[in-house]
Design a protein that fits this description.
Low-confidence stretches: none
Strand order of the largest sheet: 1-2-3-4-5-6-7
Radius of gyration: 27 Å
Structural class: alpha+beta
Order of helices and strands: HHHHHHEEEEEEEHHHHHH
Mean pLDDT: 82
Shape: elongated
Number of strands: 7
Number of domains: 2
Distance between the termini: 28 Å
Largest sheet: 7 strands, antiparallel
Strand content: 15-25%
Number of helices: 12
Helix content: 55-70%
Length: 365
């Protein structure tokens, strides 16, 4: 039991060290990239720093499997060079028993990442997307899905407009039972419009069978209300940024995903992308464990056998390959070419079986 705790402690220290190195490296690269993307005249350096810090958790979250395999390779290379693995085998412990503690650490890290770190990443990613859009256009656009329908917000130099619709078409170009509330630059309501349909075109919102009230008058708005068969309203929204604003699964906490998926389906949208993401998150601990097995299968042998560099390169290349196979399966699942459960769970299970086969072959022949 003492030996298990020893290996677990060593692996956790190596993982934390590798994680901090990658975090610092990615933050510096992203800081330079953000400075290149935004004009210093419009966005201050402090704003760019905040933008970088908001993006850092999501960046490190994405490459966590690669950090895990590098940590495993580093640990087992160190143990092999100090002959600790030889002593462990001499004590009667097989390779699989030795791997039990690092695997448990990887599982705990995976579960902690999904349950605790995922909501933090979702919050920072959401804030990053909001700030990025604001700094790019200097206009505030927002999209939200709820049980009461779809909410949109658009902005330009004339003020803000809040849009609500009970449902939409499949391509998200047409809103049904739409309501528009326009605000002036002083954040005071000036116009309210309801329409049976609102179609997003290249020139703006085309409203069908609309009724308009003017709210910036001192009299009764109903007296000046008018019905219009067709009305065109300018907009800064496009179909692409509507989809991008609310369909980023990484910006939704794993604890809120079920309610968000239900809201999407009630509003008439496809939630396949979010379902695949949710299952991929559930399978993340298993995939992290697979990365530990992959790293161990190539680096647990003693260094006197030689070709250590080749073994390390093979482990890293195999880890990268499995990582991209996992991402490719995710894309196939999001496109509907693979069932959700198969797309999410097949890569980690296949990775574990493949790594176990390699480990048994190299240990026992």
């Amino acid at each position: 039991m003492i030996l298990h705790f020893y290996f677990a402690r060593r692996f956790f220290r190596v993982f934390l060290t590798t994680l901090l190195i990658f975090l610092a490296f990615l933050t510096l690269i992203d800081l330079v990239e953000q400075m290149r993307r935004f004009d210093s005249k419009d966005v201050s350096f402090s704003d760019i720093v905040f933008l970088t810090l908001f993006n850092a958790p999501g960046a490190i979250y994405q490459i966590l499997p690669l950090v895990m395999i590098l940590s495993a390779v580093s640990l087992f290379l160190t143990l092999a060079r100090t002959s600790e693995l030889v002593v462990t085998r001499s004590a009667g412990r097989s390779a699989l028993v030795t791997l039990a503690s690092p695997m448990c650490v990887a599982a705990v890290i995976g579960i902690t990442t999904v349950t605790l770190f995922n909501p933090i990443v979702a919050s920072t990613t959401r804030q990053y997307i909001t700030l990025e859009q604001e700094y790019k256009s200097q206009k505030k656009n927002a999209v939200s899905i709820g049980r009461d329908g779809l909410w949109l917000r658009q902005g330009d130099e004339n003020g803000q407009t809040v849009i609500h619709a009970l449902s939409t078409s499949d391509d998200m170009r047409t809103l049904f039972d739409a309501r528009f509330l326009q605000y002036n630059t002083d954040s005071q309501p000036k116009t309210r419009i309801i329409a049976d349909e609102a179609r997003l075109t290249n020139t703006g919102w085309q409203l069908i069978r609309a009724k308009q009230w003017s709210l910036d008058t001192s009299g009764n708005p109903e007296e000046t209300a008018r019905k219009i068969d067709a009305l065109m309203l300018p907009t800064t929204l496009t179909i692409d940024n509507i989809r991008d604003s609310f369909s980023e699964p990484a910006a939704i906490s794993i604890w809120e995903m079920d309610a968000y998926i239900e809201g999407l389906e009630e509003a008439g949208f496809s939630a396949r992308r979010h379902k695949v993401w949710q299952q991929m998150e559930f399978a993340r601990p298993l995939f992290l464990m697979a990365m530990v097995l992959v790293g161990a299968s190539f680096t647990m042998r003693h260094t006197r056998f030689g070709k250590t560099g080749v073994a390390v390169l093979a482990a890293i290349m195999m880890g990268f390959g499995l990582y991209y196979v996992r991402n490719f399966a995710q894309i196939l699942g999001e496109n509907g070419q693979l069932p959700t459960m198969i797309a999410a769970w097949t890569p980690p299970i296949a990775s574990i079986l493949l790594a176990l086969g390699l480990l048994l072959h190299m240990e026992d022949g």
